[in-house]
Here is the input.
Amino acid sequence: QVQLQESGPGLVKPSGTLSLSCTVSGASISSNYWWSWVRQPPGKGLEWIGEISLSGTTIYSSSLRSRVTISLDKSKNQFSLNLISVTAADTAVYYCARERLREVGMLDVWGQGTTVTVS
Amino acid sequence: DIVMTQSPISLPVTPGEPASISCRSSQSLLSSNGYNYLEWYLQKPGQSPQLLIYLGSNRASGVPDRFSGSGSGTDFTLEISRVEAEDVGVYYCLQDLQTPYTFGQGTKLEIK
Here is the structure.
């Protein structure tokens, strides 16, 4: 059974860098999947942040592209999210998710989410 | 970016009654391969989102058959034939035709 677990600081100072990791268990991150990050500001809806392939190809949301980096660490079976120059608007629950082929249902496994507050 | 618009925003439903949620996209989600790249997710209170429907009308594994998806192009609907108490939460549509993928703003289903 595949499980994803987010980890990282719960509090980040304004103008600082938000850094989160997602540890994958029950499957190899080198499997033929993409891996995504999604966030949810308090009381608001879901926002797709970006994705990374097993080869390291990345695609980001238009609104965050200038500040975000997603990377893979195959040795740790993890992928990570870095968001620079954060403001209070980046306060959210951050989810990592496994991304399958769209033809079979894309985001089929999600982490439990981790809350990050910018203050 | 493709903009996704859901309605209603809030949906109070009596148990046993049907429910319907609409999702519209700013451009067609119908690909040249004949597939509509539209998914539905449910986020139950305090939980992570879970996949319900993909390709507009295909139920994900383990999803009860009271859930159904329909539509094509820019107009899609999620229907629940008989709402149960466990169906409460926020429903989101997601377009995965092209990146950046985009979600609708969500529809909160609550029990009357």
In short: Chain A has a mean pLDDT of 96.
